[in-house]
TrEMBL record:
<feature type="domain" description="Glycosyl transferase family 1">
    <location>
        <begin position="192"/>
        <end position="346"/>
    </location>
</feature>
<protein>
    <submittedName>
        <fullName>Glycosyltransferase family 4 protein</fullName>
    </submittedName>
</protein>
<dbReference type="Pfam" id="PF00534">
    <property type="entry name" value="Glycos_transf_1"/>
</dbReference>
<dbReference type="InterPro" id="IPR001296">
    <property type="entry name" value="Glyco_trans_1"/>
</dbReference>
Length: 393
């Protein structure tokens, strides 16, 4: 078999999904690979099986399926973006019980979760396939000598709980690009427009039903903009109509960059009401980059990105009255909403810009290259220095 040659001076991102999607992983991988950063190829590789891996400086894997294709001929790191390596449904959420799943992955409990608790598909073939994929990914992560990046402490604790040594797993929270258009702190005029924003997929786990019910308990001047689409949209539209909220909600559907920028600009707060334990979520960071406070559910990795009372407000899972009270609090207090937005922007500049993220990632790359060199006693002289210097934006 003839192997494809790559530029040995480059680091490559490997991802089986499409970077043309709107999901968090797609957005993150696309941002890293397509940002013209020195030392990182803008080519995203979907398979490494037929690559000449000996010539590669480092491979950054983002899909667990690719783990089996690594021949231990080059440095590799793997990022855990979600729960799929230790949860067959990928949600860690028991939908029918509206509870976070605290079970360790094992066949009986996970089958029960799918069939009885509605954590995922109830189709037998889908259950078996999901189990095999997660079990295989977890086994590979345990046996392969590669560093693991978790995008939150929550995810890190989960994978360690499922058997990975703590010293192999590092938390590195995501970064997002700054807005391309000018941004400014929340103005009194925009605050007086009394608009809030939900941006995300319209599926039950994202908590839009909870938000609509909370909206009904707020002042009638508050208007909800919904940027996103999904299979649960018709049901949510019926709920809004039933509750007499149709004139207080605007359904924008999937929004392009310019449309979403406008919606961020005209709101006084961004609502992130997920019911499932989000591994991290980029919505909070995107809000901070635009001087907007965040009202979010205290689940999964979300609390790691919301400083309660400073950059936003955390609310208990599915608590309608508490969410309504948080919205009302910022709707009636311009100074607090503005302060939280400015605090979030300052935190974003300190911790969550893509430049800060890349510099921290470069350190992980350098360490992975050095450990691979020591383990294999190969000639990798200079790689550590290059990994750091070549990634400076």
């Amino acid at each position: 078999m003839k192997l494809e040659l790559l530029d040995g001076e480059m680091i490559y991102h490997c991802f089986q999904g499409s970077v043309h999607g709107n999901g968090g992983i797609e957005t993150y991988v696309k941002t890293l690979a397509l940002s013209s950063l020195p030392g990182i190829s803008d080519r995203i590789i979907t398979s490494i099986e037929n690559l000449d891996q000996k010539q590669v400086k480092l491979l950054h894997l983002h899909s667990p399926e690719i783990l089996v294709e690594w021949r231990q001929e080059c440095p590799v790191i793997f990022t855990l973006h979600n729960h799929s390596c230790y949860c067959p449904s990928g949600t860690k959420y028991l939908a029918d019980r509206q509870q976070i799943c605290d079970r360790t992955m094992q066949p009986l409990g996970c089958t029960w979760g799918h069939i009885v608790d509605g954590c995922g598909s109830r189709r037998p073939n889908r259950i078996v396939k999901s189990w095999k994929n997660s079990a295989s990914a977890l086994e590979n992560l345990k046996k392969l000598p590669i560093p693991i990046i978790a995008n939150s402490d929550y995810v890190r604790k989960q994978i360690i709980h499922h058997g990975l040594p703590a010293h192999r797993v590092t938390t590195l929270r995501c970064g997002v690009k700054p807005p391309q258009s000018p941004t400014a702190p929340l103005s009194r005029e925009i605050h007086q427009n009394q608009r809030i924003l939900f941006a995300g997929r319209i599926v039950p786990d994202k908590g839009l039903e909870w938000l609509i019910k909370a909206l009904a308990q707020t002042d009638s001047r508050i208007h909800l903009d919904i940027a996103g689409d999904g299979w649960d949209k018709p049901a949510m539209e019926r709920l809004a109509q039933k509750m007499g909220l149709s004139d207080r909600i605007t359904w924008h559907g999937w929004c392009n960059f310019e449309q979403l920028e406008t919606l961020y600009h005209q709101c006084f707060a961004v609502i992130f009401p997920s019911l499932w334990p989000e591994p991290a979520g980029l919505v909070t960071l995107e809000a901070y980059a635009r001087y907007r406070p965040v009202i979010a559910s205290a689940v999964g990795g979300i609390p790691e990105q919301v400083q309660d009372g400073k950059t936003g407000i955390l609310v208990s899972l599915n608590n309608v009255s508490q969410l309504a009270a948080a919205i009302a609090q910022l709707a009636t207090n311009y100074s607090q909403a503005k302060f939280m937005g400015e605090s979030g922007q300052a935190w974003y500049q300190q911790e969550f810009t893509i430049d800060v993220h890349v510099q921290r990632l470069a350190e992980i790359y350098a360490k992975a290259i050095a450990e691979f060199r020591d383990r294999n006693q190969g000639d990798f002289s200079g790689y550590v220095e290059k990994a750091t210097l070549n990634l400076t934006p």
